[in-house]
Prior knowledge:
Blueprint: H1 3-6, H2 8-26, H3 46-65, H4 79-94, E1 107-111, E2 117-121, H5 122-147, H6 154-157
Antiparallel strand pairs: 1-2
Amino acid sequence: MTLYQQSIEVYRQGLTMLSGLLTKAEAHPKGNDLLDAKLAEDMHPLAVQIRFLSNQPGEAAERLTGRKFTSRDEDDASFADAKAVLANMQDYLGSIDESELVPAEESLVIDLPNGMEFTMTAEQYVRDWSMPNFYFHLTTAYAILRSEGLDIGKADFLPHMYKYATKMPGS
């Protein structure tokens, strides 16, 4: 697999899935109040999980392509706003050509706001940092919505798999 397939394509797939979950959340009786829901008191609410998810692909693309990206600091006030931000990120990622990515073996330095620094290859960055963080927040967003009573299941988390289906139950 190329670095592009391991990163940009996976981010786009995850953002599509999240957008589908947010469409279902819009119809939930709690509506936009779900944005304040948390799994645990010491965890970030759904709105922050969504903000992190909308920033992470852009932050990774900046490291992998050199394109400038400015992370958002504000949380969305509604699911409609959140879906618009996800759509913008989809457009941004869709504009990246595979040839723009640095070679997988290129060294990257990752500086964290807490003062920690990591040096790794671009491939290690995608595999060991970016993707685990992306899926952590994606899974947490799913779990918050599920715990708040949204009628979702594994099929909602893996909707991209239907393109590979050769047989469905009852067919």
